[in-house]
Amino acid sequence: xTIQPEVPSALPNADLAVRRYGxxxxxxxxxxWHADPLADAVVxxxxxxxxxxxxxxxIVEKSARAVDDPPDSALALLHQITTEPxxxxxxxxxxxxxxxxxxxxxxxxxxxxxxLLAGADNWIAAKPLLLTGRYGHQPAVxxxxxxxxLATVVRPGGMxxxxxxxxxxxxxxxxxxxxxxxxTSHAAWDLAAWGVPVPQPYMAFTLAEFGHISLAAMAQxxxxxxxxxxxxxxxxxxxxxxxxxxxPELNPTGEADHVAxxxxxxxxxxxxxQHSRDFVRALTExxxxxxxxxxxxxxxRLREDxxxxxxxxxxxxxxxxxxxxxxxxxxGGAKHVVRALRPGLFLADQARLLAFGRERLSARGYQARDRxxxxxxxxxxxxxxxxxxxxxxxxxxD
Length: 398
Known about the structure:
Layout: H1 14-21, H2 23-31, H3 37-43, H4 49-62, H5 72-82, H6 90-102, H7 104-119, H8 123-131, H9 139-153, H10 164-186, H11 191-194, H12 200-220, H13 227-244, H14 255-267, H15 274-293, H16 300-319, H17 321-326, H18 334-356, H19 358-379
Helix pairs in contact: 1-2, 3-5, 3-10, 4-5, 4-10, 6-13, 6-19, 7-12, 7-15, 7-16, 9-10, 9-19, 12-13, 12-14, 15-16, 16-18
């Protein structure tokens, strides 16, 4: 009989995590053994996952109770996601969307140069994607898939029950469950060393990637949001966490929780591996830098070189030199340029707000974001939204 260790053996600083973060640190470590029982039950339904998945998709996406005799696993998941938590204030979700879309360009930039790279600084968290063939493969397509999902979440009514963001968030939750099943059934997964695939703590960290990590990086680009705006954004991600299956004890409620999650992720991370470094290079040089280069002027070769240096410089500012060194992000003078530009970018944003007003800028932001997503999909030959729509991919709805 195999005895499960108290803490996954590959995680460093477990004792320090508890000393520094108390009960939150203990919940983080315990969470490495816990996944998402409701979504996992749907995917592993004894009657076959097809019927359960079809029931969830039909009810969630069509908002109709027209499914004959849905499996119990589907009913249990549907009950959880359609039961609104007492703390939810739906008007705040729409306010958060209006703020974020106002800064679509900056947010899209930092989600790549800060959030995704912060997540890459942990090879255990990245291991499931590597084992499913999605890590380092087509980083542009993966980024656009994330953008497609965010575009449905971050819009008025997007997270209404049956709304587009709500439905796709449930799909993402089920994709995570498919990944867990695939990894544990068809690949070498060291449970005692790594915990369960896609565990609760790493699901919670994803919320911090879209929340505080990206907001802090945007502040480095001169974006200054009000406390009320920030609170609304954190409220949005708290509800996304509820729908996507993050347990209440780890689902962040505000900025302090996001910061603690980031700290625990870094503290207990074994660091990046070569796959992580290759991913960072591919994401930056094959996707982020070429997109930035389209906004610059001059000969193509000079634009691409300047864009690459600027992207790496931004990543160093956002992540800090220690994490950037671990990921082998090239150093250089570009990081000083990024820091020097911050006051000017702040003044430009304030002038923009005064000239056009927040409501008008939000309306423009929704239009510009949707146009940009269509352009990116055409440019990369994408005809799907999420990976579960790709035949042969893990999570594909056969």
